[in-house]
Amino acid sequence: xFPPSASDYYQFDxxxxxxxxxxxIKVREVMEKEVAPIMTEHWxxxxxPFHVIPKIATMGVAGGNIKGYGCPGLSxxxxxxxxxxxxxxxxxxxxxILVHSSLAxxxxxxxxxxxxxxxxxxxxxxxHKVACWGLTEPDNGSDASSLMTTATKVExxxxxxxxxxxxxxxxxxxxxxxxxRNTKTNQINGFLVKxxxxxxxxxxxxxxxxxxxxxxxxxxxxxxxxxxxxRLPGVNxxxxxxxxxxxSRVMVAWQPIGITMGxxxxxxxxxxxxxxxxxxxxxxxxxxxxxxxxxGNIQAMLLVGWRLCxxxxxxxxxxxxxxxxxxxxxxRARETVSLGRELLGGxxxxxxxxxxxxxxxxxxxxxxxxxxxxxxxxxxxEITGIASFKPAA
Length: 393
Ligand code: FAD
Description:
Blueprint: H1 18-45, H2 53-57, H3 76-89, H4 91-111, H5 114-125, E1 131-134, E2 150-154, E3 157-168, E4 175-182, E5 188-194, E6 200-204, E7 216-227, E8 231-232, H6 241-273, E9 275-276, E10 279-280, H7 285-313, H8 319-343, H9 355-367, H10 372-384
Helix pairs in contact: 1-3, 3-4, 3-6, 4-5, 4-6, 6-7, 6-8, 6-9, 7-8, 8-9, 8-10
The protein binds flavin-adenine dinucleotide.
């Protein structure tokens, strides 16, 4: 249906199954036809294009690798390819989907009761409702396991008190997956919080320079009552969140892969079309070196991302391997989009040309799902046996 993209230089597509290729084709078609034309305008206004949600739903990717409950049951690789294809056109759209699907829905699938899975997953898979996932707090970012939002047991349920920060989709989410500290056990528990419950307020975080379409919120809980049936029975310690983060960290690593593929394809076209000194920009050796460096980075990122998926699918992926993938891919992607920005000259700073938007969107991705540094420390701990998260006493 589509010509191979210039960025797929080592014929990565050959590594995919027919089903995974079909996912890629479907997602690319919807993103290019339905989503691409409207995203720059919404990015500039920092507004979410709610009218496009039904189009996004037609891609059939919400629920990713969850099997049953109306979810697509993709392979991890298929889910990763879908993530990259969305990010290739618009990183905000990809973050919107990942928060909803690979964080919130996956938490329900892995840690929810049978009744919760049956109640929530089918309509979330159709995007009839939108979900968010709240772990980070104003005073607990990288140190998320020290979170301070509390859950106190009362007759028939729980009272949540505290704050969350940066929570994507939270300003309009119908369902909030929230982590809080059980005041009796001091362990982390998970809760399903419905929009508009008394005591819950969400305020949009303004003035972001990246992922401007994603609506991130500050959330405050003041004695928010959650009935017993909305506690996630499978979240009984912070470690239980790591089952979800193992998958979502792999998916997040595929966002920069998609972003840089989109940037490369745009640069490749631009350099052949625009002329200076009587020749196309592509004719200058310095520009070719930059283009080749971008292409080399992308081939390496694709192969690392692919291997990470295969390790996960065979049950062998370690937390350190996932963290290395996320950290290294975002680092290489930062270099790659910077080169793209340079290659477009002045147009490289205009959001109209995709690259400036991609350049800015990569910054929060470098930071969320564990910053570059924190992911290095996770891998560092695994390869040395020495944890260095806390300064020496
Ligand atoms: P800090 O923890 O304050 O870190 C600041 C700097 O110090 C970083 O460079 C960090 O690497 C470094 N640092 C911290 N500790 C160490 C250490 N031990 N050793 C070395 N360096 C260290 N969270 C959610 O729960 N849900 C969401 O949907 C969500 N979406 C997000 C969307 C966006 C756009 C952004 C920006 C963030 C989002 N987050 C979300 C939060 C995100 O996960 C945190 O921003 C991230 O974990 C970093 O925390 P922090 O911003 O508080 O930085």
